[in-house]
Amino acid sequence: MAAKMEKLALFAWLLFSFCLLGYLSLGEADRQGDILFKLLMSRRSENSHVSHSWAGLDALNEYSSVGIEPQDGKMESDKIDALPGQPEGVDFDQYSGYVTVDQKAGRALFYYFVESPQNSSTKPLVMWLNGGPGCSSFGLGAMTELGPFRVNSDGQTLFRNDYAWNNVANVIFLESPAGVGFSYSNTTSDYDKAGDTTTAIDAYTFLVNWFERFPQYKTRDFFIAGESYAGHYVPQLAYTILLNNNNTNQTVINLKGIAVGNALLHESITLWGIYDNLWTHAINSDETYKGIHKYCDFAKDFFSEKCSDFIRQSLDERGDIDIYNIYAPICLDTSLKNSSNGSVHDFDPCSNYYVENYLNIKEVQMALHANQIIWTHCRDYAWTDRPVTTLPIIKIIMASGVSVWVYSGDTDGRVPVAATRYSLNTLKLPIKAAWHAWYTNREVGGYVVEYEGLKLATVRGAGHLVPSYQPERALTLISSFLQGTLPPSTP
Ligand SMILES: *[C@@H]1O[C@H](CO)[C@@H](O)[C@H](O)[C@H]1NC(C)=O
Ligand SMILES: *[C@@H]1O[C@H](CO)[C@@H](O)[C@H](O)[C@H]1NC(C)=O
Ligand SMILES: *[C@@H]1O[C@H](CO)[C@@H](O)[C@H](O)[C@H]1NC(C)=O
Ligand SMILES: *[C@@H]1O[C@H](CO)[C@@H](O)[C@H](O)[C@H]1NC(C)=O
Ligand SMILES: *[C@@H]1O[C@H](CO)[C@@H](O)[C@H](O)[C@H]1NC(C)=O
Ligand SMILES: *[C@@H]1O[C@H](CO)[C@@H](O)[C@H](O)[C@H]1NC(C)=O
């Protein structure tokens, strides 16, 4: 009993310190990683919800056909005239709106879709997913990472991201699952049922209906990319697509590849990666590192008291840094500033506050065809199901011939590159092209190794949200992924 209380107290304490950092100094976006860490810790007390295989695998095996609603005229009505405060000279089309994924429950997912300025009809289609679970792909992914615009520090106007991924693809940002951002359900008990399985099925239903709304994309090369907890969403959605492509009555989706960045692939291995990374990057002491290695067994369901003590010590030693990008400045002033001169070359660590202000402006919500709500970056879910690892599903996807890329910003402390390497090394894949530097703009952009069926690339100087701090390197990397080539190996 006493031991159990200790565990609960530690959990509450971790929760408190992470939320505190999340809200007061690091900015809302970082809750994507905070929620992820909380989830890793929560496994200790909610073991019954966690299994080694994905329950969804079985659920989806018996999965028949999804409902397709008529979509006539909806593409036209989803077209955005202009976003309030957008810069002059916007040369591409933008769409946003809702796709109903369950008519009876009244459940609908919100998307933002940007076409490519040039030759959009021959460029591939990419779906982007942020993690959490429960964080917005629109607020984070589109507005602070890879979308065409970022929000100025005035919280009202936008500036152009020259390295937006719609330079090379048509990009859908999906707020998933229902309850995140503008996505909702009229049956609010749906929020308590959210988990990996319902998220994958809803995202699949969204896609099938979205292709009816945008039929010109039905046969287009399709890719799914995402970061953090999307290490679950992306492979699970890909697997759902492959399964349903085999059902002759279902729309065949032309899935070509998946990419996951700083992704949760295996829970206990990720915890080892986190603590080893804190030591190798001189954030934790020798004593803490040794203590964690001596007393912690992350594969077990509960931490020992000694292990808990060292985890607490690790946090104390860390100080107030941005664990999602350990060398980056932190947000020291969360207020709006009076300037409209933001630059993609100079990432502002307070960006999330500007985004939150912008997306809560009535005219912005109207321009987006969104419900008038108080929009937030993340929702906290109880989260009903998840496997301890998505590597088995990734292996199935690799075997199906779909291209699989794993990338990692190498200054992230939340899902550090060590966690990714430890996880992938368990697959024992043969090497096709040995580890080497890749280049962009005459500088090393990172390192890449090609395994049989999977490529691993790092992005030098990028944190958890890779395109925020290294937009040019991220664009080079994703262009290579879409073209099916390794990034340039010479300057
Ligand atoms: C949810 O309820 C509102 C109000 O009745 C309705 O306008 C809306 O269409 C419903 N949403 C869905 C997805 O059915
Ligand atoms: C667009 O496609 C045309 C025809 O294939 C090609 O000549 C042109 O260079 C392309 N433009 C861009 C910007 O990719
Ligand atoms: C789809 O069908 C093919 C051919 O029967 C099979 O090899 C493959 O495993 C199936 N894919 C999935 C995801 O079930
Ligand atoms: C496909 O649809 C037909 C007619 O609706 C139905 O009879 C058949 O069972 C369906 N097949 C599958 C594999 O769902
Ligand atoms: C912001 O700048 C505008 C134009 O320069 C000025 O009129 C306004 O008073 C400023 N607002 C604040 C809060 O400084
Ligand atoms: C924008 O202007 C402010 C005030 O003039 C200045 O402090 C800031 O450095 C500028 N930001 C950029 C990205 O140029």
TrEMBL record:
Keyword Secreted (UniProt): yes
E.C. code: 3.4.16.-
Keyword tags: Carboxypeptidase, Disulfide bond, Glycoprotein, Hydrolase, Protease, Secreted, Signal
GO biological process: proteolysis
Coiled-coil ranges (or none): none
Principal EC category: hydrolase
Glycoprotein in keyword set: yes
GO CC terms, sorted: extracellular region; vacuole
Family recorded in the similarity comment: Belongs to the peptidase S10 family.
Name this protein carries in UniProt: Carboxypeptidase
Origin species: Durio zibethinus
Lineage: Eukaryota, Viridiplantae, Streptophyta, Embryophyta, Tracheophyta
Name of the gene this protein is made from: LOC111285414
